[in-house]
Amino acid sequence: MGISIPDVVCPFCGCLCDDLIIHVDNGRIIKNEHGCAISKSKFLHHLDDRLEHPEIRDGDSHQTVELKTAISHCVDLLKNARRPLIYGLSSVENDAHREAYKIADLVGAIVDNTSSVCHGPTILGTQESGEAAGSLAEVKNRADLVIYWGSNPQFAHPRHISRFVKPPGEFIHDPRTDREVWVFDIRKSITATLADRFVKVEPGRDLEVLSALRALVRGHEIDVSEVGGVPIDTIRELAERMKSAKYGILFFGLGLTQSHGRHHNVDAAIRLVQDLNSYTKWNMMSMRGHYNVAGANKTLTWTTGYPFAVDFSRGFPRYQPGEYTAVDLLRRGEVDVLLNIGADPVAHFPKVAVSHIRKIPVINIDPKRNLTSLFAEVNIPTAIAGIECDGAAVRMDGLPLYLKKVMNPPEGIIPDREVLQMIYEQLEEVMQ
What we know:
- The protein is α/β, with parallel strands linked by helices.
- 38% of the residues lie in helices and 21% in strands.
- The strands form five sheets. It has a nine-stranded mixed beta sheet with strand order 5-4-19-18-17-6-7-15-16.
């Protein structure tokens, strides 16, 4: 007899949709109600491509070993490392973060998470200019003007619009007439086809458009015909519409953070939103990708005061993006051991960084096989948080949510936090 588990949180993207109904029968997930196509695939195919046993490299292949043997090998690698790097953490739950930071503090490692290659500029812009933060519930209930800038949620966050923009809210009775959706992007994306307005911006010129919008909002005139490929009359119209909104929200993605200007783009967007708050109510929010990348930033900040790129080598945390970020460390060839937790840097890092990864021992902690697991010195499989173990994660708006366990992991597989705790406890014994 199957069971249905309601109110399950989806551990895929930063939306952390919390309304899934997961049907389990005879030890298998047979249905995912309400989930997007990616969510359904993650739940229904969670057993595919799994790392089934702990492995240690033996020449050109990997040999299956006992968990305690793999843990001991990890301990040997970390205790003898001079410049270890702990990377990933955006696809594991918060308790695993705590254990990783304890290891970093003990061995003097550097900790970096995946935000350094995605929304790191968002954090730098926020540190420079402040944060005009709000919640997704406020968006759903109040926002009459929604802007997506440099993001394509229909592709990357499939239920973002359907959950928080299209439904009616407390003050938005008919979203078709009470709410406008605009998209700013370099091309007409899938999301743009659903929007009320699409504004095409020339690649790399977001900063100019944002600066022009800010000038017009503040009442200045601009004696040009276009800015960043956008006619000045259109920008003037947009500025007036932004000022007249009852509640506006600016969602932005990697199109803003990873184009020319980077954190200066985010800084300009923040200052625009701050200016708009002199006339009405505005917030902004980054479209976070991995389901707990926001959590990785939050937990590291709670622990050290810094959100990413933190160095423990002096016995206290030091923060320096560009110096202690993973790609920069690997590009310079400084790292001698990589502890990778729930990420796939070999698949996503630049070639020069991957070249160094292939020269050093890699401890790979992950539920599934990936490109990094092919080159790892040690592979340790773990349970998938939100499916095979519980935990906590942080939604893109900063709201912490509880991840449910809906079924048991494969035999012998334990959560990331327990693997990391075992590594820490053995390290503590041998380094006393």
